[in-house]
Amino acid sequence: MSQKKETTILVLSLLITLGILGAVGWWFNINIKPFKVVEDPVANPESNQVSNQISSGEKSLLTGGVPPEKLAGLASIAAKNYNKAVPELSAYIKANHNDPEALIFLNNARIGNQKNYTIAVLVPIGSNLNVSLEIIRGVAQAQNEINQAGGIQGIPLKVEIANDNNQPEIAKQIAEYLVKQPEVLGVVGPFSSDVTLAAGKIFQSGELVAITPTSTSVKLSGFSRYVFRTVPSDYVAARALADYILTKVQRKNAAVFFNSQSAYSQSLKAEFVTAVSLGGGQVESEFDLSNSNFSAANSVEQAIKQGVQVLMLAPETSTLDKALQVIQVNHKRLTLLGGDDIYTLKTLQIGGDAAVGMVVAVPWDINTNPNSDFVRSSRELWKSDVNWRTALAYDATRALIAAIGRNPIRTSIQQTLSSPDFSTTGASGTVRFLPSGDRNGTVQLVKILPGNRSRVGYDFVPVLP
Question: Which residues of the chain have pLDDT under 70?
């Protein structure tokens, strides 16, 4: 073979080889994606926006815009210029005395870089702003009082606010974050029973105590050694409501409106059905407010045809509007009862005259002891009356303060709260816990009547014994 032919063959072989390698390389490039490290959203909260849900003063979590005066104070906190933030927020609060977030951030700014004990409050700002403000108000009042008194054995209390939007998955992410912050010694919250059940296991795994002021489901009794509550369970509320209709107004046939997707609503419904049955009455019908085909008018008419005398409403936040429709279409024909989620200004505004006479079970009412130290202090601080959510959030914070004062270690805080000899004074009396984590307390029945205290023409008034 000539040298020229050999050279040609070599060149062709090289070209073919290069072509094959290039084709293989092209195939790999379009079918194999480059390796990418996926960040752990808990280890790096920024990657999952957890940090955007938590603030100790560098930003506001409240919806609806931030006034420029408040924004200036938050910007100073973010810049760690606490000496500037204190007068800015103080001036803002003088003109906006009912902003509990601002009061917490002011107290945090006063602490600055000092040694402190830190707790968090977990609230559903994104889904229920008013309820969140009520809870934050109780925490803010307790923080303000203890810090003005010199702190917990000389060490001030710092508070972080976290927004879980009342979503179990978000709450679990926040709980994962909080348990990995060693400076956080306790949590006030969460708000709903569903969220508390979701986040509670994480709090236990991180040995971080959570005291919920508002979660009432019986599923929480004995649920976790690290979950406590300052609100009585649905067992207590249901029996108070059942006793009222069976003995006070002597009605035996009832219907219940509830949300099958809510642990709280299911719990209150089930406990009420049991209590009525044990008392000699009967629940004739159960109507699911979460059903897409639910009709308030049809449900009430069906109940009347069945001989029902009492309608018990056990909604939660997402189904409150449907419960209010029931109140309106009933228009005082049948006796109305309600769980604690009915206790809102919205009920008074929308229910109006149709809601007059409705009896609601709540853990605390301001008119039960209108001259107490807590009521006097809260009126002075907020320039208005507070409700049971504020009072029981105050109690939860006071319980954490007392436990931290004994020993500021997570496991010791849990042991202190679980101890039979533990007690502290709160807005609603003595705070102590049963071995189940439940509050050892009772409920108050209130009735909707015409009045001017709420400024909407109707008030919740205590039912006399």
Answer: 1-48
Asked whether the domain spanning 234-362+444-462 has the same topology as the one spanning 49-232+366-433, the reply is yes
Q: How far, in Å, are 30, 231, 357, 360, 427 from residue 462 at the CA level? A: 72, 18, 12, 10, 17
What is the largest distance, in Å, between two alpha-carbon atoms of the chain? 120
User: Tokens 């009862």 correspond to what residue?
Assistant: 337
Check: CB of residue 253 under 8 Å from CB of residue 311: no
Q: What is the residue type of 331? A: H
Do 159 and 139 meet the contact criterion of CB atoms below 8 Å apart? yes
Q: Give the model's pLDDT for residue 26.
A: 31
Which residue, chain included where needed, has tokens 């303060």?
Answer: 401
| Domain locations in the chain as residue ranges | 49-232+366-433, 234-362+444-462
Distance between CA atoms of residues 18 and 20, nearest Å:
5
State the DSSP H helix or E strand holding residue 253, giving kind and residue range, or none if neither: strand 253-258
| Cis peptide, bond prior to residue 450, ω within 30 of zero | no
d(CA 123, CA 161): 8
190 in Cβ contact with 115 (< 8 Å): no
Domain 49-232+366-433: which topology? Rossmann fold (3.40.50)
- Token digits of residue 134: 């009520």
Given a contact cutoff of 8 angstroms between Cβ atoms, the answer to whether 159 and 394 are in contact is: no
CB neighbourhood size of 83 (10 A): 10
Q: What are the b/e assignments for 11-39, b being 16+ CB within 10 Å?
A: eeeeeeeeeeeeeeeeeeeeeeeeeeeee
Q: Which residues contact 438 (CB under 8 A, 6 or more apart)?
A: 220, 221, 228, 229, 232, 233
Q: Which CATH number is associated with domain 234-362+444-462?
A: 3.40.50.2300
Q: How do residues 282-313 score in pLDDT, each as one tens digit?
A: 999 999 999 999 999 999 999 999 999 999 99
**418: amino acid identity, one letter:** S
Closest alpha carbon to 460 in 445, 444, 448, 443: 448
| pLDDT given for residue 3 in this prediction | 41
Segments of 260-399 assigned E as strands: 282-288, 310-314, 335-338, 359-362
DSSP string, 340-368: GGG-SHHIIIIIGGGGTT-EEEES--TTT
> Which pair of structure tokens corresponds to residue 371?
């001259």
287 alpha-carbon distance from chain centroid: 26
Tell me what pLDDT residue 48 has. 54
Q: What is the chain's Cα-based Rg? A: 28
Between helix 129-148 and helix 373-382 the angle, nearest 10°, is 110
Q: In whole angstroms, give the CA distance from residue 135 to residue 192.
A: 12
Strand partners, 285: 255
